[in-house]
Amino acid sequence: MILLVDSDAGLRRALHLLLMASGYGVKAYAAEANLLGDPMTKEGSCLIAEHRPPHMDGIDLLRQLRATGWRRPAILTTVDVSAGTELHARGAGYAHVLRKPFAHHVLLGLVDGVVARGPG
Question: What is the pTM (predicted TM-score) of this model?
């Protein structure tokens, strides 16, 4: 199951449908707090989360998940692919940082790759 967090309802729905059409189960959330409150989170095989400071963002989310023992791979989507964002994301445990907007096939390729490798 892919855990998907994006505040943009249209993009979240499109990615949800794309991942499902590619054979993945998906749990989609509008906010990081919703994912953290869901006991099914531990079942996730991969996290796709957005970076959108100053609110809790995908980097803080992954740090909190890691603190609970969740060790699966993660992909961060962002409009800010600066060296600082990349450094913070990698430090939190993200396998990939993907700049928005992105081609759907690129995201699918990353998901296929990290899921095949297993825990990150």
Answer: 0.93
